[in-house]
């Protein structure tokens, strides 16, 4: 394989900190990072064909290329690709940052987005407005963000640039996430030795303090414990799983204290049924994927999601809200045709989630059907191969757009 050189930008004033984001000077920090990257290319005499930017932290680069660097012989021909991982984090700051960024003298169509007007600057809006092409992390999310429901007040700007907007699924590192070789799980297995998987379920039940019962359907969630990840739906119906479905539940993650208290109190009321690990533990995450029967991702919105892909890789059946990347990767199981790779619901409410959980448990009660469902899940290819080919095509498209624009200037 060809080696890829990686250059790091270091500055103790801006980056020698415990965290990455959420500092009062974030705008200045990432302005510095982006300008250092651009000027670093010149210093290295490495002229780029494509500059691929991600989220608000690098969103001013396309803006600079069309303004500050418009007449720069070294950088002006570079095409920009701007990827949106989530519209929920846009980078909105006071207008003083325009002076820091050196773009206060350039006009920007404030009508493109209400946030980038008056006294506020919206970094993401500028990335979207100036990039040669825009991508996001799933085809369905690319369509969703054109609507007011999912567009986070950016839908008008995105619709204006919809001919430059593309959705490409994230890939999964299938070597790192491989139940046949994973050192974190109790018993390795693959699609040919799927019978061994039950040992991981028993080990997870024992570790979590759940009743060791191979017949009990074991639900799991590995997530931030916040409402938008679907915990506002899980909260009112979780006890029904224990009372009516003879099910178990294990949750791993941190988040709102409200949900921390909820899970701890419920675990005390239902010993042997519910285990809550209010932390992040990468090894336990692997054991959950290898031991759970049904993996929950009922997110209100989900640009891509990797949890459902990892779950399928390990033979845990995903149960999802059919939005964003979840809709692109999980096909709802149809018992009439015996086709599907999971369970999906479309109406975002608690009873829609619960009835889908009932469907999953009813299917789980039929071992032959469940085994075929597991095998289909494990056969899905979520490697980077297909996504990489799509990105190559996207880069070529960006270069064509940039070349056409340069020829017309």
Describe this structure in words.
The protein is of the alpha/beta class. The protein folds into 2 domains: 12-171 and 386-408, Rossmann fold (3-Layer(aba) Sandwich); 191-382, Glycogen Phosphorylase B (Rossmann fold). It is built from 16 helices and 12 strands. It has helices spanning 12-15, 26-44, 60-66, 96-101, 123-130, 139-144, 155-160, 197-208, 231-244, 257-269, 282-291, 307-313, 324-329, 350-364, 367-379, 384-408, and strands spanning 50-54, 79-84, 92-94, 120-122, 133-136, 165-167, 218-222, 248-252, 274-277, 294-297, 317-321, 343-345. Strands 9-8-7-10-11-12 form a 6-stranded parallel β-sheet, with helices on both faces. Strands 1-2-5-6 form a 4-stranded parallel β-sheet. It has a two-stranded antiparallel ribbon with strand order 3-4. It is elongated. It starts with 11 loop residues before the first helix and ends with a helix.
